[in-house]
From TrEMBL, chains A, B:
<keyword id="KW-0028">Amino-acid biosynthesis</keyword>
<dbReference type="GO" id="GO:0004635">
    <property type="term" value="F:phosphoribosyl-AMP cyclohydrolase activity"/>
</dbReference>
<keyword id="KW-0368">Histidine biosynthesis</keyword>
<comment type="pathway">
    <text>Amino-acid biosynthesis; L-histidine biosynthesis; L-histidine from 5-phospho-alpha-D-ribose 1-diphosphate: step 3/9.</text>
</comment>
<keyword id="KW-0378">Hydrolase</keyword>
<dbReference type="InterPro" id="IPR002496">
    <property type="entry name" value="PRib_AMP_CycHydrolase_dom"/>
</dbReference>
<keyword id="KW-0963">Cytoplasm</keyword>
<comment type="similarity">
    <text>In the N-terminal section; belongs to the PRA-CH family.</text>
</comment>
<dbReference type="InterPro" id="IPR038019">
    <property type="entry name" value="PRib_AMP_CycHydrolase_sf"/>
</dbReference>
<comment type="pathway">
    <text>Amino-acid biosynthesis; L-histidine biosynthesis; L-histidine from 5-phospho-alpha-D-ribose 1-diphosphate: step 2/9.</text>
</comment>
<dbReference type="GO" id="GO:0000105">
    <property type="term" value="P:L-histidine biosynthetic process"/>
</dbReference>
<dbReference type="Pfam" id="PF01502">
    <property type="entry name" value="PRA-CH"/>
</dbReference>
<feature type="domain" description="Phosphoribosyl-AMP cyclohydrolase">
    <location>
        <begin position="35"/>
        <end position="108"/>
    </location>
</feature>
<protein>
    <recommendedName>
        <fullName>Histidine biosynthesis bifunctional protein HisIE</fullName>
        <ecNumber>3.5.4.19</ecNumber>
        <ecNumber>3.6.1.31</ecNumber>
    </recommendedName>
</protein>
<comment type="similarity">
    <text>In the C-terminal section; belongs to the PRA-PH family.</text>
</comment>
<dbReference type="GO" id="GO:0004636">
    <property type="term" value="F:phosphoribosyl-ATP diphosphatase activity"/>
</dbReference>
């Protein structure tokens, strides 16, 4: 099934019941996934305007610019949207580590049959 | 704040209110994001068991193996989980195009100030 949202050239995000899109951030240098966050319409507009990643925090129920306290901002290089417009892929240039643990990426563990292991 | 879920070596997914995790699929060949889907506990178990991506369809409310009808299966190379264990990064070897539109990736459009453009 192809519709205007899928095949058209108009940005028409399909927000979920909480008004959010999923946003995947990858590093422009090597494609590593750095983090996954959520954006409401305001966060998306702020991200496009500032060219830095701004999310909506589900736990704090407020907008936050990634790096607002740590300084580890994500500079946006390119933004893409998927077929049904409910997910964003943002290619970014990270200023410092992305994860609040200090790791470069939030995805610092891999799944094995025995549990988790460091990447 | 560091806790066992963040720093430990036990797989302990933090499912959302609908019992789902976000799963990002990238292509092992070049790191392109191919799609974003959702997995419940059963989909995650099936994915690990079959080493192919199995999702939970929110629209159809059932498990589906990506490629079950098209044949375009995603062979899992590596699976990673993020700091708070509510998102998965799956590095995959795609068998054919991933998007149901026939595109290699669901992210075939980029955002510009004027709307969307082909990547």
């Amino acid at each position: 099934m192809t519709d205007e949202r899928e095949s058209g050239w108009t940005l028409d995000p399909k927000y979920d019941a909480n008004g959010l899109l999923t946003a995947v951030i990858t590093d422009e240098s090597d494609g590593a996934v750095l983090m996954v966050g959520h954006m409401n319409a305001e966060a998306l507009a702020k991200s496009m305007e500032t060219r830095t990643a701004v999310f909506f925090s589900r736990s704090r129920q407020r907008l936050w610019q990634k790096g607002e306290s740590s300084g580890n901002v994500l500079h946006i290089v390119d933004m893409r949207i998927d077929c049904d417009q409910d997910a964003l892929w943002i290619i970014a240039r990270p200023q410092g580590p992305t994860c609040h643990t200090g790791a470069r990426s939030c995805f610092y563990r891999k799944l094995t049959d025995e549990g988790l292991e460091p990447v």
